[in-house]
Amino acid sequence: MIASNPVRYRAYVPVGVEEALEQKAAIENLLPIAGGTEVMVLLNEGLLAPCPVQSLHQLAGDWRGIRESDGSLIIGALATYTDVRHHPVVCERYPLLVESAKVTGALQIQNRGTLVGNIVNGSPAADTVPALFVYEANIRLLSSSGERVISINEFYTGYRKTILRSDELISEIILPAPPDGARHYYRKVGTRAAQAISKVVVAGIRTDHETKLAWGSVGPTTLRALKTEKAIAGGASPEEAAVVLMEELAPMDDIRSTRNYRLAVSRNLVMDFIHKTKE
Amino acid sequence: MTVSPPEHHELRYVGRSVTRREGAHKLTGRSRYIDDMHVEGALTGRTIRTTIAAGRVRDIRFPEGFPWNEFTIVTAKDLPVNEVALITNEQPALVDSIVRHHQEAILLIAHEDPGLVQEAARAIEIVYEKDPGIFEMEQGRVLKDLAIRHGNTEQAFSGENIVFEGEYATGAQEHVYIEPNGFIAWWENETVVLHGSNQCPYYVHKAVKNAFALERDDQVRVVQETTGGGFGGKEEFPSMVAIHTALLSRKAGGKPVRLIYDRAEDMACSTKRHPSITRIRTACTREGVFKGIEVTFHIDGGAYLTLSPVVLSRGLLHSGGPYRWPAAKMDGLCWFTNSPPYGAFRGFGAPQSEFAIERHLDRLSQLLGICPIELRRKNFLQRGDVLPTSQIVEEDPELDHIVDRALELSDYRAKQQSSPCGSGHGMGLSVFYHGTGFTGSGEVYLSSVVALEAQSDGTVEIQVSSTEIGQGTETVFAQIAAEGLGINIEQIRFRKPETGAVPDSGPTVASRTCSIVGGLVEKAARQMREKLNGRDVAEAAAMDSLRAEARYEPPPGLVWNEETYQGCAYGAYSWGCNVAEIVLDSVTAELRVEKMWGIYDIGCVINPVLAVGQVEGGMAQGAGWATCEDVVLREGLMQNTRVTNYIIPTSADGPDMVVEFVEHHNPIGAFGSKGVGELPMDGPPAAIANAVAHATGQNIVSIPIRPEDILK
Questions:
Q1: Are B397 and B419 contained in the same domain?
Q2: Does B633 fall in a domain?
Q3: Do both B181 and B85 map to the same domain?
Q4: Cα(A212)–Cα(A214) distance, rounded to whole angstroms?
Q5: Which of A18, A74, A266, B388 has its CA 20 to 30 Å from the CA of residue B273?
Q6: Span B286-302, pLDDT tens digits
Q7: What are B184-218's pLDDT values in tens digits?
Q8: Range of the domain at B228
Q9: Contact A45 B640 (CB under 8 A)
Q10: Nearest chain B alpha carbon to A256
C-alpha cells in the first residue's frame, strides 16, 4: 500500500520542450519525473512532501537520444542506463560509464532510470557521477529565458544541493572525447553484488601525463581528489598517494558503513588504481 | 517402535518430485494475496505507533484540518480484553498508557479514502513522558530462565582436562517474507470474519476470541489467504494485526476494514530473530575427547515475553551440538529490553546456539593442535549415546558418513591445503542437528487432528489447518494422501484452511508439517483406504459420508519432564553438515561465499525438488544472516526498514549450492520423514565463520561478519 495520498501530487504532462520549460518557470516546486526510480520509492514510503509533479515522458522524442557531435558525445536527459551502457560509442570510448551504469541498481532500475536522474538527484553515492566527473562532462541547462552549459565538476554545491535553478531542466550531457591512451578504473564497493547503494565508489582515468580520480560516498558530494591526482601524475608511490588521499576525503558513519572502513577501503583502492593503471 | 523404511521405487508419489500444486498460479500472478482481495465498501485502516521506546502516553491530539468525525478511531478502551493471547497474555493489543517499545500500536484509524488515512495518520500527535529504556541484554530483568543438568561437571573441569572458553554473539534477523502482513475483517452480527496472511489460523482464532471475550468458537472465522512467506514471522505476529482489523471493523459497525502493512511499517514493528550471546566452557582430554560443557545462552526477548520461552528452550537444548557430553551444565536466560519483541524465526534459537558451539570447536581444535574435523569425529553422537536431557539416541546418525560425503563433494582437504591461513581464501565446516516438531510435551498438548473426506465427485479432500506458505504443504500432503489411499494424486483436493471448517492440525511451525502432520495425513489415508475396501471413491462417497480423522498420539516412551528438563525433548532429529568456501576481496574485504555444500538427513525425502528448495533457501538465508543482514537499532528503533538498506543476498550474491540427502527413516513421521524446514538454517553461519577465520587469520566470534569488522 502507498503510504502517501496521491491526490496531493498534481501531475503535469507537457507535450514539448517549450511547454515543459514554461511550466517549470511558472509552477512553484514542480518536480520533474523521468524514470521515477527515486520519486516513486519516496512516494510509496510516504516520504515525498506533497508537490506538483511533471512527467517528462512526452519529451522522449527530443531528449532520449544519444548522438555524436564535433568529437563529443551528447546524451539526452531521458536516456536510460540501459540506453547508455549498450550504446556502441559509449562502449568504445567511455568504459567507466558502461561499468557504472551496469552496477546501478539492477536491470529493472537500469531500464527505467536515467543518467540525468542520477545526476540531478544529487546523492553523493551516485554510481555514475564519478565517471562523469573524470570525463569532465558538461551539462546543458535550459529555461524559458535561455540556456547555460556548465561543467559537472561545478554542479554540486553541498549535500544534495546543486546550482540548478527552479526554472531550469537539464536537457543533455555533453561528453568530451577522453584523452588518447587513457587507462580506465572503476570500482563500486556496495553492500551486495546488485541492488546496492555504494559505501565507496571511485572512477579514474590515467595517461602518461595526467590522472583524474573522482570519489563518491566519502563526502557531502561526489568529489575530485585533485591533490592525489597531482601526486600520482608526479610519480608518487601508491603509499604516498594514499597518504595524500586521506586528507581529501571526509567520509561519515551511516547505516551502510563506517568512516573508518571507507577510509581504509579508499586507501586500498587508490593503491589498486595505481597498480592497475600503470601502463 | 520400528517400521521398515519404504522403498521408493515401490511408491507412486512419495519420493518423487511431483510439481507444486499452486506453483503455476504463483508464477503467473494468478494467486490472490490479501492485498489483491477486493471487498466492496471496505475502509482502509492504519496503525498509529509509539515514537519512543519507553515511557507513558500523556495525550493524543487530533489537529484541525481533517474531518475526524468521518474517521473510525479506536484505542485500548474499545477492546473488551486488551491482550494478545499467546503463552501468557501480558502483551497488550494497544498501548493504554505504558510504552514498552518503539512502534508499539497506540490507536487505529480507518476511512474509506486510503490516501486521507495516510495523511491523517501522520498528523496525529502523541505527547509522551519518556523513560530512558534498556537496550542491551543483561541490564534489565530476566523474562525467563531454564537449566539443564547432566553428569558431574565439577569433575570434568578438574584434573588434567583442557579447559577452554569463549563468547559468541549473533545479531537480529528480519524475515523479509515477500508479502508484508495484512488482514481484511468484517462482522456478521456477532461473528467476526478474518481473511489474511498467516501461518497459524488457530493462533489467530484464539487471540481474537480472547480479545473480544467471545463465548463460542464459531464467532471467529479465520480464513488463510495465499501467504507470501513466513519463516516464523507470521507465527504469532498476525494475531496482533487480526485483533486490530477486527476492532476497527467492529467500531465501524461491522463494515469491512483492510489493514495491510507497507514494508517499512512491517519491518519496524514486527518480530525478528532473537539476538544472542553464548558463553561456552568446555573440558576435554589432550586427545580431544569431550568431558564436559558449561553453556550460558542469553537471548534478547524484547519488550514482551511472546514466544521467547520456547525459543530459549530450543536454543538451549541444541547448545551442545551433535556431540557426546558426559557432563553438561546448561543455563538459558531471556532478557527484557525495550526493543520490539523478538519472535519465531526459522530455527527458533537453535541457529544461534549451534553457531556458538560450532565456532567454539574450531577454536578449540586450534588450541589442541587437532584438525577440527577429527576433533568432531571423536565426539559425534552415536546410537545409544545419552543427550544432556538423558534422552538416548535411538538411531545411528552416521555423522561420519555425512561428513565424509561433504568433504568428498567439496574437495575440502585439497582446497584447504592450497590456501594457507590468511590467504583470503578458506573452507569451513559445521555439523548440526535439529529436533523435529514441538519441544517436549508440546505435540501432546497440541493434540493435532487431520481429516480426510471423500466427495461424491470421486475426490478426497484434505482438511488441515497447516498452511501453504511457500514450502509445499499442499503438494506433499497430496502425495502422502494419494500414496496412503492408493488413488491418483489428481483425486486429492486441499481445503483452504479456515477455522471451524478444518480441524486444528496445529501451527505451521517447528519443522512439523511434513513429518508430524503429514504422518497424521498418512494415518487417516490408510484408515480411509480400509473403509473404501477396494471401492471407488465416488461410489463409496455416494453411499454414505466417508470421513477419516487422525489425532496425534505420542509414541510409547516419549516422556518429557518440564520441571527437570529431562526426558525426550524431540521424537526425532534431523542431521546435517555444511561446507562453505569463501573468498575475501583483497582490496575491499568484501566477503563472497563462493560455494556451499549441504548433506542432510531429513529421513524420507517426500518430494526431492521441494526439499532441495527448502534447504537451498535455508542455506541462502543462513548465509545472509552470517554476512550481510544487519538490523540496525537505535534506541530500539530499526533504522534500515527498507529492502534497499536491510541487505539480504540477491541471486547475484548467493553461493552455488550442492545438496545431497542421506535417508535415515523416522519411525513416526510420514513415510519415515523428519523435519526439514529449519535444519538448513543451523549450519551456514558457523561454516562461513570458520572459513573466514581461516581465510583472514582473525578470531571471528560474532555474526554478521562485515567487511567493516575485517578491514580495520
A1: yes
A2: yes
A3: yes
A4: 7
A5: B388
A6: 999 999 999 999 999 99
A7: 999 999 999 999 999 999 999 999 999 999 999 99
A8: 41-52+54-132+176-269
A9: no
A10: B645
